[in-house]
């Protein structure tokens, strides 16, 4: 392989790469339709020119045929009048016109075939252009959809590496942690309160029960300001002080309560 061949191949490859990158599908589709329409205009002009030539040849053929028939009639007339020389001259003219008509008929047949071919090509090109226009609109819609999808994917891809998105996610995580700590503190506070109230309620029940038992033993209602577990000067229904047996029972109950 020669050096110039290699250089030529490299240059053509680079040019093809540049052209491929520069191609815009929408613009290429539009230009393709324009080029096909220009071809259609040229083909219509060619068909019109071929039809005009065919008609001209048809007229020449008809004229030559008419002249041949006319000289045939003149030859018959001259012969009927006894002028054989004039009849011979008329037949010579008739032969010339017949030969011209024959040549024109051959040309006319060729032109008729060419016109028919051009007409078929014209119809086929018109059909292709109509189909191409429909496909062009469909392809442009698909191109627009593909571009929109590509832009969306690029935007989604950038979200994962975006500084703003990273900061947003960190703040979201921070808020969740703050909410979790607040909920934990609330649960702990609620638990302490419940325990405190439960202790108060338990102590109140024991004190109430103790006061009730002391009232039953002494036969009088407990005084409002008396402290639990302290000795009080109670009297019986007859007004006599409590005996030592009652005090002993009371001390025993207090001891049992302390052991609970």
From TrEMBL:
It holds the Pfam family PspA_IM30. It comes from the Bacteria. Residues 216-260 are annotated as: Disordered. Keywords: Coiled coil. The keyword Coiled coil applies. Residues 233-244 have a biased composition (Low complexity). InterPro entries: PspA_VIPP1. Residues 246-260 have a biased composition (Basic and acidic residues). Residues 47-81, 108-188 form a coiled coil. Belongs to the PspA/Vipp/IM30 family. PANTHER family: MEMBRANE-ASSOCIATED PROTEIN VIPP1, CHLOROPLASTIC, PHAGE SHOCK PROTEIN A. This is PspA/IM30 family protein. It comes from Floridaenema fluviatile BLCC-F154.
